[in-house]
Design goal:
- This protein has 28 helices and no strands.
- The chain is an all-alpha fold.
- Helix 9 packs antiparallel against helix 10.
- It is elongated, with a radius of gyration of 30 Å.
């Protein structure tokens, strides 16, 4: 006999791609659900345990969408097993009274939905966990059956975990750590080329660096591999990806050395960057930490910084008044501009190496970790979870909005089911759970399809029950075949088919638990109608525009906060003493921008999950196509650049350079505010406000060369020019940036 898994795999492989994916999933859920059900129903004659075994497997295997490979989902199911025990126990205890069940539904429903802030796996498991609480929260109140309920739940989930691990042994996608390692190696190759004659990258090299950087964007990474959790390792891995993308972009845009010879100090920095990038890749692949390479690069960077900030070798030291500005170096502006770009490259490489060791070893990292940028490095998991939850505990968070919407809808259905004694009321709650969407258009469309599908399924169910009657052997034989068919076709054909097929499935299940009648189909239709109506009402009343409107507001707020930081930072650089007294890392302005970035990222994630855009007002609909990813990167770039410019040692600017730096900062901040007004116009905002994007004339002031300007001025101008490039990409207008600028704008 052949391998049954291999035979099924061969058959599945002949299906179209969409059906093949759902068929593989169905081949996992169906045996898990049927095995527990038949064991308890016909082997042990425990119908309660049979019900919970089946619905536990369906909840976390069919209703949930846990991302990852079979083994990854298996581990997630096992980790959630204690949570499922708690939910079944609480639901059983609170079902004694309607008011207690309703209160529990409000609290548990919100908590499970809000847990999506923890990343793709909690978000994917939330619907199934909701079902495992809904099922025992209805009468009959039978505390004596709690043992059977827990036994059935445990069996169903254990069989599901085994099926996921054994029957879904598909190869896993490339991990984000491996993608980051490849990016680090690509950066090392670029740095090596820049450190050897002819000291330049070809167009092919630049394009390859850009392509490698694009692989680290979250939207291009499988959901299960995105480092979206609140823990140290996930945060550090996210930081590693951002730093690697920044390093690749800055290497690609490094200005050509005047005269073709970069000098030994520049070459030393580039070689140190190459060594650190190679060591970082090895660290991400579970190698040793890049401690020595980090120290070497830090020393080379410090030497170049001191050389760039002070008089060049061979010149006499010139005394100057202690209260006056430091003498400007004698390096030509082109060299200073290149030094500033090279120091930013070194900063990105240092951040990448430090974050990589944190991503691999967590709080046990070996390298020295600066707690400013890596504030999370020494914090324990509960504190980091609290930071994540607190950051989303507000009406502007789409995670908070979704949690409130679904919790209120489920609570209302539970109240109606309890007051009116709705038979099989959990079907109504299941309909609400699966039908409620984040926008009005999606909700109404889903409700219509669900009702049509349920009606068709109810008619087929009624006919089946009338023909077959009480012959449970027929239902037992048909159930696994129908489950396999339903879990294969439903996800591909959409909510209408899914609801219709599930209507027949639950009838086949309950026909084996109690004497069936054709009125079971009528009850199912009534429940779906009630659940759909309540879900639609809350879809209309609670944030009916979903993340589309929220993303515009969040992006506009991010740009407003970024404009504040730009003005404060440039004013500090251009101040009388240049000590950065006006703004420091960690002050309220930085925290406000960090929170704005978090909210914009969550709104963007929700925006990607809403396939049907909600039609906004005509005025907003006239906006050109927007690159929301560029908006998020502008926020990150603002934070990182501000931190770098205000790190000691700080060099005061002469009057000409200070005036230019302050004016450039105000110019960028003004463009950010205009862009924010275009994204989220107020009631009295003029209709003619354009979406501003810089052209060649707008970028010209950033290439100015004030007399005797130090390297710090050119670092400030480079940072502000890159922010202008970010603004250009948001609106997709204006001239196409140069190859190097493309990489910079994606940082």
């Amino acid at each position: 006999m052949g391998d049954p898994v291999g035979v099924w795999g061969a058959l599945v492989g002949r299906l179209p791609t969409a059906y093949a994916v759902s068929a593989r999933h169905a081949l996992t859920v169906t045996p898990a659900a049927a095995a527990g059900f038949y064991l308890f129903r016909y082997g042990l004659d425990r119908p309660v345990a049979a019900t919970y075994a089946l619905f536990a497997a369906v909840a976390l295997g069919g209703l949930s969408r846990i991302p990852g490979t079979g083994r990854g989902r298996s581990v997630t199911v096992l980790r959630l097993l204690p949570v499922c025990w708690v939910l079944v126990t609480i639901g059983t205890c609170l079902s004694v009274r309607t008011w207690s069940a309703v209160a529990g539904m409000l609290v548990i429903g919100f908590t499970l939905a809000f847990a999506a802030v923890g990343g793709p796996r909690p978000a994917g498991a939330a619907p199934g966990l909701q079902l495992l609480y809904i099922l025992p929260s209805f009468p009959p109140y039978d505390l004596a059956s709690l043992g059977d309920r827990l036994a059935g739940t445990t069996t169903g989930l254990l069989v599901l975990a085994a099926a996921e691990a054994l029957l879904c042994a598909e190869p896993g996608p490339t991990t984000y750590r491996e993608l980051s390692a490849r990016g680090a190696l690509a950066a090392g190759r670029c740095a090596t080329l820049l450190a050897t004659p002819p000291y330049a990258l070809t167009g092919t090299d630049i394009e390859a660096a850009q392509r490698t950087g694009q692989t680290l964007r979250a939207v291009t990474v499988p959901e299960a591999e995105r480092p979206a959790g609140p823990g140290v390792r996930d945060r550090a891995l996210t930081h590693t990806g951002l730093a690697t993308r920044a390093l690749l972009g800055r290497l690609a845009q490094l200005p050509t050395a005047p005269g073709g010879d970069p000098g030994p100090d520049v070459v030393a920095v580039l070689r140190a960057v190459a060594r650190l990038a190679t060591a970082t890749a090895a660290c991400l692949r579970s190698g040793p930490p890049p401690t020595a390479q980090l120290r070497q690069l830090a020393a080379a960077r410090a030497h170049l910084s001191a050389l760039s900030a002070g008089p060049p070798p061979g010149t006499a030291h010139v005394c100057h008044p202690p209260d006056g500005p430091a003498p400007a170096p004698a390096f030509p502006p082109a060299v200073l501009r290149r030094h500033a770009a090279l120091l930013e490259i070194a900063d990105a490489a240092l951040a990448m190496g430090t974050a990589a060791d944190l991503a691999v070893r967590g709080r046990h990292a070996v390298v020295e970790v600066p707690l400013g940028r890596f504030w999370y490095a020494s914090l324990r998991a509960p504190v980091l979870w609290w930071h994540r939850l607190r950051g989303h505990a507000g009406r502007r968070s789409v995670f908070f909005q979704n949690a409130v919407r679904i919790a209120l809808a489920l609570t209302a259905v539970r109240l109606v089911a309890g007051v009116d004694t709705l038979p099989h009321g959990f079907w109504a709650m299941l309909a609400t759970l699966t039908i409620t969407r984040t926008t009005v258009n999606q909700t109404w469309s889903t409700v219509r399809l669900a009702l049509v599908g349920t009606l068709a399924g109810a008619l087929l169910t009624a006919g089946t029950l009338l023909v077959v009657g009480s012959d449970t052997a027929v239902y037992a034989a048909v159930l696994p075949v129908w489950m396999l068919f339903g879990f294969t076709v439903g996800p591909v054909k959409g909510v209408g088919w899914a609801q219709g097929l599930f209507t027949v499935l639950v009838a086949l299940v309950f026909a084996q638990l109690a004497p069936p009648t054709w009125r079971l189909a009528e009850v199912r239709l009534l429940d779906v109608l009630v659940g759909s109506a309540i879900g639609a009402v809350f879809g209309v009343l609670a944030w009916p525009r979903g993340a589309h409107d929220e993303l515009r507001y969040a992006a506009a707020e991010l740009l407003r906060r970024a404009a504040e930081i730009v003005v404060a930072t440039s004013a500090s650089v251009a101040g009388p003493d240049g000590t950065g007294a006006a703004v420091r890392t960690g002050v309220p302005g930085h925290r406000s921008l960090q929170r704005a970035v978090i909210l914009a990222e969550s709104a963007y994630a929700q925006f990607l999950s809403e396939p049907t855009p909600f039609q906004l007002s005509r005025r907003r609909a006239e906006l050109p196509h927007l690159d929301w990813q560029a908006t998020l990167m502008a926020g990150h770039h603002t934070l990182w650049g501000s931190d770098r410019l205000l790190e000691p040692p700080l060099t005061a600017l002469n009057p000409a350079a200070a005036t230019s730096a302050g004016a450039l900062g105000e110019r960028v901040a003004g463009r950010m505010l205009l862009m924010s007004a275009a994204l989220d116009p107020g009631d009295d905002t003029p209709a003619s406000v354009p979406v501003i994007s810089p052209d060649a004339a707008a970028l010209a002031p950033f290439r100015a060369e004030p007399p005797d300007a130090p390297r710090r001025y050119y670092a400030t101008a480079s940072w502000l020019a890159s922010l202008m490039t970010d603004l250009a990409r948001i609106a997709h207008t204006g001239p196409a940036p140069a190859a190097g600028e493309k990489a910079a704008g994606r940082q």
